[in-house]
Amino acid sequence: MQTTLRSSVTFQGIGLHSGAPARLVVHPAADNHGIWFKRSDILVGDNLIPARWDVVDRSPLCTRIVNGAGASVSTIEHLMAALAGCGIHNALIEIDGPEVPILDGSAVPFVRSFLQRGLRTQDARVRALEILMPVEVETDAGFARLSPGLGLTMAFHISFPDAAIGTQQKTLDLSNGAFVRELCDSRTFCRQADVDTMQAHGLALGGKPGENAVVFDGDRIASPGGLRHDDEPVRHKMLDALGDLALAGLPILGHYDGHRAGHAMTNTLLRKLFATPGAFRITECDAAQAARLPGAGVHRGEIPQVA
C-alpha cells in the first residue's frame, strides 16, 4: 500500500549554490497525491510545483523544477532520493525559498528524520512504472539506460582525472533497504578546480568542504575528515540518480545503467522513456513486486553509524 509520513518534519539549513538560508517542511499528503513542492514565500500566483520529470530545467549541477508561472525549487535530488529510498509516496513539501538546504551534503539527515517520525500506511495500492524495453540516451561524455528488471537495480560507472577519485563502479539491488544501508550517507563531491570555477560564477556559495561536500584536488582529499566510504563518489552518483529517477512520479521496476551520467542525462532518459510507445506500463503492485521496491521494510537500525 502507499505510505506517507505520520506527521510533518522540519529541516533548516543553507542552499549549496545560493548560500541562502531555507526552511523546509515535509507534510503528510493524501492517497495518490504524489510529491509536490509549495513555495511558501510566493504569496501571489501559482506557488505549487510537481516533482515531475517534465517540469525539470535540465542542468549539470543540480535538479531544478519550474512551474508554468516561473516558480522554482532547485537541488531537490537528495530529498527526492530520501523519499524514494524510504518508500514515501505522498508528501507536500513547503519551502520558503528557491533552493533545498544541503544539510550535510547527503540524504541521511532526511532519511533519519523520516524514519524517526514514522510512516503511515494508506488505503491505495502502490503503482509502479514497469520498464518493458530498453531505452537509452548517449552523449560524448557517457550514457544512461533503463531496461527491464524485476525490482529496481542500478549500475554506475564514473571516471575522473583526479587520482583521489579515479575510476569507480558499483552495482546494487535497491530493494529491502539497500539505499538506506549503502547510499544515503554518501555526500556530494567536486573537484577543487570546479569549485573555483563555480564560485567565480556565483555558485557553490554554500559549499563547506568536510561539512556538506567532499572536495578532491588531484591525488588528495582536500576536505577535513576524509571519506565515509572508499567509493563515496560513485555511491553519491547513485544516490543522485535515484532522486532524479523518482521524478518519474512512480517507483520504477527496471534496471538503470549510468556511465558518467548526471542530472541532465537522467532527465533526458526519462523524457525519452515517456516518449517511446511500448517502453513501459503502469502496474498496480502485488505484494511480491512491492517488496522489491527501494523503501520496502526499511527501519532506523539500517542507517549507517558513520552518519
From TrEMBL:
Keyword set, alphabetical order: Hydrolase, Lipid A biosynthesis, Lipid biosynthesis, Lipid metabolism, Metal-binding, Zinc
* GO molecular function list: UDP-3-O-acyl-N-acetylglucosamine deacetylase activity
Q: At the top level of its lineage, which domain of life is listed?
A: Bacteria
Q: Which InterPro entries match?
A: Ribosomal_Su5_D2-typ_SF, UDP-acyl_GlcNac_deAcase, UDP-acyl_GlcNac_deAcase_C, UDP-acyl_N-AcGlcN_deAcase_N
Q: Which residues form the active site?
A: H263 (proton donor)
Which EC number(s) are documented for this chain?
Answer: 3.5.1.108
Q: Which cofactor does it need?
A: Zn(2+)
Q: Which reaction does it catalyse?
A: a UDP-3-O-[(3R)-3-hydroxyacyl]-N-acetyl-alpha-D-glucosamine + H2O = a UDP-3-O-[(3R)-3-hydroxyacyl]-alpha-D-glucosamine + acetate
Pathway(s) of this molecule: Glycolipid biosynthesis; lipid IV(A) biosynthesis; lipid IV(A) from (3R)-3-hydroxytetradecanoyl-[acyl-carrier-protein] and UDP-N-acetyl-alpha-D-glucosamine: step 2/6
> Pfam families under this entry?
LpxC
Cross-referenced PANTHER family: UDP-3-O-ACYL-N-ACETYLGLUCOSAMINE DEACETYLASE 1, MITOCHONDRIAL-RELATED
Its biological purpose is as follows: Catalyzes the hydrolysis of UDP-3-O-myristoyl-N-acetylglucosamine to form UDP-3-O-myristoylglucosamine and acetate, the committed step in lipid A biosynthesis.
Q: What is this protein called?
A: UDP-3-O-acyl-N-acetylglucosamine deacetylase
